[in-house]
Amino acid sequence: MSTSPAFTASPFVGKTFGITVAKLTKKFGRTTVLRDIDLEVKPGEIFCIMGPSGSGKTVLLKHIAGLETATSGEVRIGEYDAADPETRNKVHLALVFQAGALFNSLSVYDNLALYPREHRECNEAGIRERVMHALSILSLEKAANKFPSDLSGGMKKRVAIARALVMEPQLLLYDEPTSELDPVMSATLTEIIATLREQTAVTSVVVTHDRDLAFAIADRMAFVMDGRILGVGRPADFKNPTDPVIANFLNPVIDLKNPRFKQLENSHE
Amino acid sequence: MNHLSAIVGHIGGTLLLLVRTLKFIGTLPRQWARFIEQCYLIGYTSLPIVTILSFFIGSVLALQSGYSMENFGAKQFIGTLVGLTMARELGPVMVAILIAGRVGSAITAELASMKVYQEIDALTTMNIPPERMLVLPRLAAITVMMPVLAIIANLCGWYGGALVCEYTHTISVDSEAYFTALKEYMKPHDVTDGLIKAEVFGFVIVLVCCYIGLNTRGGPREIGASVTKAVVSSLILILVLDYFVTKALLMS
Ligand SMILES: Nc1ncnc2c1ncn2[C@@H]1O[C@H](COP(=O)(O)OP(=O)(O)O)[C@@H](O)[C@H]1O
Ligand SMILES: [Mg+2]
User: Fold this and answer.
1) Which of A104, A105, A167 is opposite residue B126, by nearest beta carbon?
2) Domain locations in chain B?
3) How far apart are CA B250 and CA B83, in angstroms?
4) Rounded distance between C-alpha atoms, residue B16 and residue B4, angstroms
5) In angstroms, what CA-CA distances link A63 with A56, A67, A169, A173, A191?
6) Residues A102/A160, Cβ–Cβ less than 8 Å
7) More exposed terminus of chain A, fewer Cβ within 10 Å: N or C?
8) Do residues A98 and A175 make contact, with C-beta atoms less than 8 angstroms apart?
9) B186 contact partners, CB below 8 Å, separation of at least 6
10) Nearest to A222 by CA among A82, A38, A63, A31
11) Tens of pLDDT, residue by residue, chain A (269 residues)
12) What letters, b where the CB count within 10 A reaches 16 and e where it falls short, cover A158-176?
């Protein structure tokens, strides 16, 4: 299936946006989730963010999407403030949520058609073409009339990706896009992200645990740990990481005799 | 003190939601399908229960007033009493309570679940204001349906009263006399006052329930908490507003 048709979005006429994160700190009550984050994503780049779960990746992505407001510091998309609602009228942004965030009261087809319909971008025939094309890329044609509650986790994720593609965004944010996909679909997604960069002016930020995905497509990548950036660089820079934390994240050592579990073993005897 | 500032904050938030929603009023024609769907959900599906309940309220009103007016020999005025009470007070209040229970709760549950499962966030990133797509059609639908429901409640209540008067032998006022009394002392503004009240209640209920739903925070548990909060707030608002709106209408 990795030979599925490449995404042939109409080349977006317009600007490409970079992202600047400056001294971003976020606290929820007393817990600090992001500490002094500085990041620069260049226009048109594929930027991967990796890190253990709970390290603040989703919260960082939400700041870029303007869904959270910073405790201090700021996020800019091009020259616009990401937290300002007006920015959404200037930058086409799509976010693939970690859990999909599909509209449960709408069919898969209507989930995808909602954006072009609400923004009156084209007539129903044009919308149909766009929606069916996006569905076919993710092999979802048969699911068009199903409702989100009838889909598996992986299918929901694919619908969420398709919904983002229909939006033809200038800035595409993925939150762990392959976490529920099978290896074939993951490969397809890798192709989609790479092809989109070739054909359109999109800037992509991909939060992922998937080493294969990150090393296959990233122009640059960053490691996040405990709300801090541990390192930023090209994939080649991380082939043999010197930082022991990053090294262990990328190539975890599996110790079947780990003493931490000794007690667990004993309790079974 | 904390409670007070929280309440003031919620009132401000609710008014802000109203302003933001009304800004999109021009989009109503192209949201026709959503508006009709909400009219169906809010109005049509409430019809059976509104009909049955108002019928029985009118009936019991006639029964009680038959019993108490017997002493004054004023049985011929039962029609007036049932007619006025239904139109001015019980019709609008009862419909409002029903709407709070079955429509308000459903609206809050739906919007709260959309909030908790990040559908609202998804709308926001898609630059589709929830006020336009979710709040406006519901507010428009309740504005149209509330007077309709109140009129139906009045009619059912009046006929319920008439039936009881005619067929309860301790009362035995025939329906002709009943409706003559009902028409004689009731003025059109008695009915329109009631409809205005119903309109105010319905609008406030839907607005408040939308606000509470959209401001749900946390996990799925909070959906239930929000629904409870929405219904309780609606009931309190109905009864408090009832006093003030009635007073204002009586003065004008
Ligand atoms: N709305 C919130 N309120 C309080 N804490 C939160 C909230 N969202 C996230 N957190 C906390 O922030 C931390 C980072 O979360 P998240 O960004 O989701 O991690 P991940 O890197 O796995 O995506 C976690 O400890 C989480 O508990
Ligand atoms: Mg996450």
Assistant:
1) A167
2) 31-251
3) 17
4) 18
5) 11, 6, 17, 11, 27
6) yes
7) C
8) yes
9) B80, B83, B84, B87
10) A38
11) 333 344 444 444 467 899 999 999 999 999 999 999 999 999 999 999 999 889 999 999 999 999 999 999 999 999 999 999 999 988 999 999 999 999 999 999 999 999 999 988 788 899 999 999 999 988 899 999 999 999 988 899 999 999 999 999 999 999 999 988 888 888 888 888 888 888 787 899 999 988 889 999 999 999 999 999 998 999 988 888 888 888 888 887 777 777 777 666 666 55
12) bbbbbbbbbbbbbbbbbbb
Taking CA atoms, A86 is separated from A80, A82, A83, B80, B129, in Å, by 9, 9, 9, 58, 12
* CA separation for the pair A66, A224 (Å, rounded): 20
Nearest to B125 among A67, A105, A118 (CB): A67
Residue A239 DSSP code: S
Instruction: Tell me which of A25, A49, A53, A58 to substitute to probe ligand 1's pocket, judged by most ligand atoms within 8 Å of the beta carbon.
Output: A58
Quote the tokens at residue A269. 């005897």
Neighbouring C-alpha atoms within 13 Å toward the C-beta of B200: 20
ipTM of the complex: 0.88
CA of A258 to the centre of ligand 1 (A): 29
How far does the centroid of ligand 2 lie from the alpha carbon of residue A98, in Å? 6
DSSP code for A9: P
Please tell me the distance from the alpha carbon of residue A147 to that of residue A143, in angstroms, as a whole number.
8
Q: Which of A182, A229, A234 is nearest to A42 (CA)?
A: A234
- pTM for the full model? 0.90
Please, what are the domains in chain A?
19-92+171-267 (3.40.50.300)
Two structure tokens written together for B31: 């949201």
- For B16, other C-beta atoms within 10 Å of its C-beta total 12
Residues of A in Cβ contact (< 8 Å) with B32: none
Residue that the structure tokens 């201090």 belong to: A72
Closest partner residue to B128 (CB to CB) among A95, A102, A118 is A118
Spatial distance between the Cα atoms of A167 and B132, rounded to a whole number of angstroms:
19
| Total number of residues shown for chain B | 252
Would you call B36 helix, strand, or coil by DSSP?
A: helix
Among residues B19, B35, B38, B18, the alpha carbon closest in space to that of B211 is found at: B18
Write the DSSP symbol of residue A83. Answer: T
Backbone phi, psi, residue B243, to 5°? -60, -50
d(CA A227, ligand 1 centre) in Å? 10
Helix, strand, coil share (%) of chain A residues, nearest 5: 40, 20, 40
Instruction: Look at ligand 1, atom 12, and give the residue with the nearest C-alpha.
Output: A33
Instruction: Report how far residue A259's alpha carbon sits from residue A5's, in angstroms, rounded to the nearest whole number.
Output: 49
- What is the total residue count of chain A? 269
